[in-house]
Design brief:
six-stranded mixed β-sheet, alpha/beta, about 210 residues
Length: about 210
């Protein structure tokens, strides 16, 4: 028993995304641009979901939860909250600009940018955040008897979870890029495994932004 399809949806833009700051698990709300991005995305998703079984699940951080609520309002549906879907914890880098981190910790920054599985800012490793998010997604999917699971979460957590779910090692970051704000990954269950059918699906106004 499992969901037939996963829509893994990144939240709309925040001021930290626009300012190239690490957010991690700081509870930064969406900005006005992000709310418009999410409104457009929610209309697309609502049209896809009507007439079929689905469930909405979200990280407990407000930028993701408010993203899920925008869709829930169109469908008159509840949102289940799961803290395991939070963004990667980036320790002492939270709230800092990338340029400032690079200047202060050039070796650690270079290791992270190169894809090494290091504790980001002394916090979580990519592999840890990926496994945490993927396990939460799988658990929610396995509680469904078919249908679609929509997960509102965060850039780095979802990118890593996608790789885990389709069976690629954590270091294969080149397989998928960063999810744009308010865009999603589309996975389906075929032959007993998850297959990636689409990535960075969403409204055209969603621009690339810093992960978080």
């Amino acid at each position: 028993m499992t969901a037939d399809r996963l829509l893994l949806w990144r939240h709309g833009r925040t001021a930290s995304n626009a300012g190239d700051r690490y957010q991690g698990q700081l509870d930064v709300p969406m900005d006005d641009v992000g709310r418009v991005q999410v409104k457009d995305a929610a209309e697309i998703l609502a049209a896809e979901l009507r007439g079929q079984p689905y469930r909405l699940v979200s990280s407990d951080l407000s930028r993701a939860y408010d993203t899920a609520l925008a869709l829930a309002a169109l469908l008159d549906a509840p949102v289940l909250v799961d803290p395991q879907l939070r963004e990667i914890f980036v320790g002492r880098w939270q709230g800092l600009r990338r340029g400032d981190v690079e200047a202060a910790e050039p070796e650690a920054f270079a290791a992270w940018r190169s894809g090494e599985d290091v504790p980001v800012g002394g916090g979580e490793r990519r592999s840890e955040a990926s496994a945490r998010a993927a396990a939460a997604i799988e658990a929610h999917a396995e509680s469904q008897d078919g249908g679609v699971l929509v997960v509102a979460s965060h850039g780095a957590a979802l990118r890593g979870a996608v790789l885990q779910l389709i069976g690629f090692p954590e270091w294969s970051l080149h397989v998928v890029g960063s999810l744009r704000n308010a865009h999603w990954a589309d996975l389906s269950r075929r032959g007993g495994r998850w297959v990636l059918d689409g990535y960075n699906v969403g409204p055209p106004r969603g621009a690339p932004g810093a992960e978080g």
